[in-house]
């Protein structure tokens, strides 16, 4: 079963792109962070405006309703800051706000292009309506494309950023490098599938965060399986499963690149 | 990557995966959950059932995560002999937390009363406020940490073959969540945010009507009864979501700490 909703978009050039949708969890987290940042900004604004009001009402004591006017203006500016926060960042950062950047999600148009000022503004204008009674949250949770009202009006979707796995950097022992040069002679590495290789790489990358006992069991298990797969009869003396897996990793890599 | 298993997940994705799983198994999970909430009304045996159904839903969700979906009856057969162990998980975690609360309470009293008695009211109050605040904050942090570490306490019992007693399961949760407290707290916050819309419908809207009616009238009693039933229903609707999230957390912890997802496919020996 699928644990994340996916969507296929068609670009104007009729190229099909597949994306993973952002999901309610990421969107809730992103919104939480944005609202915290926005909240701080608004607090700073209201404090500054308060000081400003005191000074102005002091100087223009003879003008009627100065305080009321200033309050009304402040209210309007408050709304502008709320709108501008999302529009500004979504346009400047190509569909991302600070919260979205942190959670690695992005707003794009239905045809995969980046969003412009019109889309960002529409989304932002409809945001308060989506927030009332959590209409937006329900639409995201229940809809197949996870679109809130703002997304429907602007023709946008929110997707996860597809990023390449970080470059492999894990320590490889000298002993493994030595063994890697011998491996092609004593074993049949061509029996190894790309999937198997990916699993070995994944293990080598993540082993440092694993619990010792579980790690030892897993590496032994993997090493035994790999040994059977590549048809290796005799193992050199004093070899740990980790070194063996490292050696297979290097040997396979060299074989495919040569 | 062409493997079907899912990799270590981000905080948001844990919550989303939990929700997607609940949505696609809505009927099964919700039916079980409502039954669990009816069992609650019967003491002891009913409570054990209530705890066991929590485990049952977590098991169903976990089996989907490892790509070996199980039928409800198969999962039930697995859960059945462990019924009383589930109750002991519930009591185990509950009593431990209760103990910590009592200790915290006593510590708070001690650090406030002691300086007052020894240093007199003048400097005593000043010291008491500072030590009281310190103990209060430390207590909250400790309780949140402990809560996170026992958060998946019933899942090992529902999933692992060689975990058969309640205390084993609690210890296992303790081991797995080591180094993951921060992430789990994050997940709980986000998952809680996601449940707010549902809680609004079942818990807050009925209370509006309650305000409008006079206490003592029959309308008031009826509305109170309805709102009680609705809050039970609200609990029943949300419970499977939390269990699915717990299953994802547990799966994710085991992937990170034990490489659960790192298997050479189709070549299990």
Structure description:
The complex is a heterodimer of chains A (258) and B (269). Chain A is mainly alpha-helical. In chain A, 62% of the residues lie in helices and 8% in strands. Chain A has ten helices and four strands, in the order ββαααβαααβαααα. In chain A, the strands form two sheets. Chain A has a two-stranded antiparallel ribbon with strand order 1-2. A two-stranded antiparallel ribbon of chain A has the order 3-4. The mean pLDDT of chain A is 88. In chain B, helix 2 crosses helix 9 and helix 3 crosses helix 4. Chain B is globular and about 70 Å long. Chain B is an all-alpha fold. Chains A and B meet through helix 1, helix 5, helix 8 and helix 9 of A and helix 1, helix 8 and helix 9 of B.
Can you tag this structure with a few keywords?
heterodimer; A: 258 residues; mainly alpha; 2 domains; two-stranded antiparallel ribbon; elongated; B: 269 residues; 9 helices; globular
* Quaternary organisation: heterodimer
Structural class of chain B: mainly alpha
Tell me the fraction of residues in β-strands of chain A, as a range.
5-15%
Number of helical segments of chain B? 9
Count the E strands of chain B.
0
Low-confidence stretches of chain A: none
Helical content band of chain B:
over 70%
Order of helices and strands of chain A: EEHHHEHHHEHHHH
Number of domains of chain A: 2
Number of domains of chain B: 1
| First and last CA, distance of chain A | 38 Å
Q: How is this structure best summarized?
A:
The complex is a heterodimer of chains A (258) and B (269). In chain A, 62% of the residues lie in helices and 8% in strands.
Give the helix/strand layout:
The complex is a heterodimer of chains A (258) and B (269).
Chain A: E1 6-10, E2 16-20, H1 23-59, H2 66-92, H3 98-103, E3 105-109, H4 117-131, H5 135-142, H6 149-154, E4 156-160, H7 174-186, H8 194-206, H9 212-229, H10 241-257
Antiparallel strand pairs in A: 1-2, 3-4
Chain B: H1 11-24, H2 26-39, H3 45-65, H4 72-79, H5 83-149, H6 155-159, H7 166-176, H8 181-212, H9 218-258
